[in-house]
Write a structure and sequence with these properties.
Blueprint (H helix, E strand, L loop, with lengths): L25 E3 L2 E6 L5 E6 L2 E3 L5 E6 L4 H9 L1 E6 L5 H6 L18 E2 L6 E2 L5 E14 L2 E13 L11 H7 L2 E6 L2 E5 L14
Bound molecules: flavin mononucleotide.
C-alpha cells in the first residue's frame, strides 16, 4: 500500500528535477507528420506534442533533433500533418516503429502521398491534412526543439468539418475526435457539451 488515498485530497509534491509528464494523464492530439527524406523517400512519424501556434494558421510540434523528421523538415523547408481516423491507428503506431538499416518497414504497408504544395507527405483518407512551409525551428528545450510551419494548404473530410447547418455536438457524436492521453492511452471523444463562455468574451 502506498498510503495514497485514491479519492483523497492529499496533494503530493512532484520532483521537478525529473520529467513530470509521465506522472499523470494529460490530453493531447495525435497527428502524423510527413516529411521527405534526402533521397525523396516518404517519412511519417506520430507526434502528440503538436498544436496550432495562435490563430494565423501556424502549426508547431515538438521534435527531437535526432529524429529524421527534424532533419527532413529543416532541409526541405516544409512538412505535412495528417490527423488519423480510428481505422488508421495501426498505421499511426507503425510509423513510430524502429528503423531497420535506415528505413521504416511499417510505412510500406500503407499508402502515402506527396503533399501537393510543400515538400511533405500526407496520409490518404486522414480526417484532416495540413501542408506547411517551414517558418521557424526553435532549439534548446532540453533534448527537444519546436518546429513551426505556416499552413499553405489544408483539407478535411466533410464529416469532420463544422457546418452552420449541423449541430456541433451531433457532428462530434457522428465523427468522434481522437484524443491521446499521454502516457500511452487514447480515447474517442463523442459526448461533449458547450463551454460556458462568459458573456462578451473575445478571443
Ligand atoms: C503516440 C506517440 C506519440 C509521439 N509523440 C512524439 C512527439 O510529440 N514528439 C517527438 O519528437 N516524438 C514523438 N513520438 C516518437 C516518434 O514518432 C518516433 O520516434 C518516430 O519513429 C520518429 O520518426 P523519424 O525518425 O522518422 O522522425 C511519438 C510516438 C508515439 C507512438
Amino acid at each position: 500500500m502506498s498510503g495514497k488515498s485514491r479519492n483523497g485530497e492529499r496533494l503530493i509534491e512532484l520532483d521537478v528535477t525529473h520529467p513530470l509528464w509521465d506522472r499523470f494523464f494529460w490530453i493531447a492530439p495525435l497527428v502524423l507528420v510527413g516529411t521527405l527524406e534526402a533521397d525523396g523517400a516518404f517519412d511519417l512519424a506520430p507526434k502528440h506534442m503538436a498544436m496550432p501556434m495562435g490563430w494565423q494558421n501556424y502549426f508547431g510540434f515538438v521534435c527531437a533533433p535526432r529524429h529524421a523528421t527534424y532533419a527532413n523538415a529543416r532541409r526541405e523547408g516544409g512538412f505535412a500533418v495528417s490527423w488519423p481516423t480510428p481505422e488508421q491507428l495501426v498505421q499511426t503506431s507503425l510509423a513510430a516503429a524502429p528503423r531497420h538499416e535506415g528505413t521504416k518497414p511499417g510505412l510500406a504497408a500503407f499508402p502515402l502521398e506527396a503533399a501537393a504544395s510543400v515538400p511533405g507527405v500526407v496520409v490518404p483518407g486522414a480526417s484532416l491534412q495540413l501542408e506547411c512551409e517551414l517558418e521557424q525551428i526553435v532549439d534548446g528545450f532540453g533534448d527537444n526543439s519546436l518546429i513551426v510551419g505556416k499552413a499553405v494548404a489544408a483539407r478535411g473530410r466533410e464529416a469532420v468539418l463544422r457546418d452552420p447547418d449541423t449541430d456541433d455536438a451531433e457532428l462530434i457524436r457522428d465523427a468522434p475526435v481522437l484524443a491521446y492521453l499521454h502516457p500511452g492511452r487514447l480515447a474517442f471523444v463523442a459526448e461533449t457539451q458547450a463551454f460556458p463562455f462568459p458573456k462578451g468574451m473575445r478571443k
